[in-house]
């Protein structure tokens, strides 16, 4: 069946070729660079011992230097699974969470139309490039030279010219045998509604071809030479080829350059991108005359996990950045972020590079600030907070914004950052919001001045540590902690308590699996569904699951699991047990060691899994409850927090019992914790 417009492009954007190929090959860790998506392995299509099979995840393609096999994720699935094209699409769509469309008898006709329009666009690109060298384009050439564009740059970006004529392009394409209807459908000509003669859309303009991620010409951007033109820049209309909300200027070349640099710049327009590329910063793209959309954000993150939004230093640039906040907040995830670089007042990248050089531009990009700074600036700049009502209004606005962040842990970190900025604002300035730039936040912690405590009073204040304007003095001095306490991962001052506690549990689970791999046959579904908070341990969890799945689908896992463990160590590059046993609480647990019985190890692993789920449920409820605090907590809210705390304390109090005599007690505790999770005892029951 034919697929609807954009379905395959969306599928390719969502699917990682490295992940798809990673199920069939074993990556060479010495030769691969996972951070850049540059992966090497022995080829799955022909027998070999060397790693000649190359995957470029940023470009979405693979190539074997031995047998010359090449293609994308779809062709890889077709060849390795021995399935047809539509079956391969269905397999990848299922993995990407996309629903296969119902059969559409018109889709094939539209696909053929798009292919025809793409050919028309290529003919138009070639013609406009030739027109740039004509006498009619002298003013355009002078302008481009004045802007500092070299002949190499003009060729690289295929810059052309459309003569100031109503029918020059139309007549050329007709002479090439292109039907007028196709020229109009490609957005190159306009057909009046009153039935009059068609005429060229682009007249007297410098032409910038717009290509999609696959390199197909899909549209034009035209810069008017007439200073009195109604539109200085004019883009093609939306067509069967061109959806401006799903396209980015220079996307194909920037994706390739980003794979080498590990960075991505989002500028405002064509000339910004071209100036950056000419200065050696080829990893730049630009939206096409609109605010950045959620689809464009997904495209950016597919290329780079933390693009830098580079904005002109004028009011329009700042406003564009501020509008982007509400689009981006619901889409943020751990490892998916945005940073912002605002140029000096009245300058764009081209101005700055000409005045101070590429090094100055690079220095500004390296100082780009996180989005939380921009959010804070949006809500505070130029405002006064000299009354409780104004401060409460600020808290309410910030709380509503942070609710848009779906990931609870990321939302928690945003709250921490807002508390820090709030503590600085409500300091000696007396509640006045200065007109500050990005990145001026310093001290952290605290709350309102004059002894106001924000803990149970809602908002984001963290408590000032003062009572009636005087420093609060504790009653009794505390005894110094023992050396073993100071060394604990939970006691480190720079450690996030939630993540540190999770690291203990996650390390215990993985060490038990490594030392007793045969247990994976029983717990593999639970381990797969468990959500890890530590990225390095989560990567190890996935690696263990990958090896276990392969073993379970082959000959199974032997009693001692030595082959499975050896394969995990080979893929990891070293024995991960060394990292896991660095945590004292894990290292000292006798039931996780290789000499322990599988029964006692399974008991501990299941208990740690249950504790992990209980702690995460309690944390999620705590974060939700925190957002609802607007004054003194009511009895229902207090009860919820007490129940969440009880669940957390019970999960952290439990310890594996002696397997020779305490299995029943430990099992009972594990069952009790699991029951608490299933009943979600901490959750408020809404009528």
UniProtKB/TrEMBL annotation:
Domain Toprim span(s) in chain numbering: 262-344
Gly residues bias located where?
455-466
The entry's free-text remark on the cofactor is: Binds 1 zinc ion per monomer.
Per the record, which residues fall in region Disordered? 455-484, 648-672
Give the GO molecular function terms: DNA binding; DNA-directed RNA polymerase activity; zinc ion binding
Cofactors demanded by this protein:
Zn(2+)
The cellular component terms of Gene Ontology attached to this UniProt record, alphabetical and capped at eight, are: cytoplasm; DNA-directed RNA polymerase complex; primosome complex
Entry EC no(s): 2.7.7.101
Read off the Gene3D superfamilies from this record: 3.40.1360.10, DNA primase, catalytic core, N-terminal domain (3.90.980.10), Zinc finger, CHC2-type domain (3.90.580.10)
Keyword vocabulary terms for this entry: DNA replication, DNA-binding, DNA-directed RNA polymerase, Magnesium, Metal-binding, Nucleotidyltransferase, Primosome, Transcription, Transferase, Zinc, Zinc-finger
**Catalytic activity annotation:** ssDNA + n NTP = ssDNA/pppN(pN)n-1 hybrid + (n-1) diphosphate
For the biological process aspect of GO, one term held by this record is: DNA replication, synthesis of primer
Q: Where is the composition biased (Basic and acidic residues)?
A: 650-663
Q: Where are the transmembrane segments?
A: none
Q: Give yes or no: UniProt keyword Zinc-finger.
A: yes
Zinc finger CHC2-type: from-to:
43-67
Top-level EC class: transferase
What is the stated purpose of this protein?
RNA polymerase that catalyzes the synthesis of short RNA molecules used as primers for DNA polymerase during DNA replication.
Summarize the subunit comment.
Answer: Monomer. Interacts with DnaB.
> Family assignment?
Belongs to the DnaG primase family.
Domain remarks in the Swiss-Prot or TrEMBL record:
Contains an N-terminal zinc-binding domain, a central core domain that contains the primase activity, and a C-terminal DnaB-binding domain.
Name of the molecule in the record: DNA primase
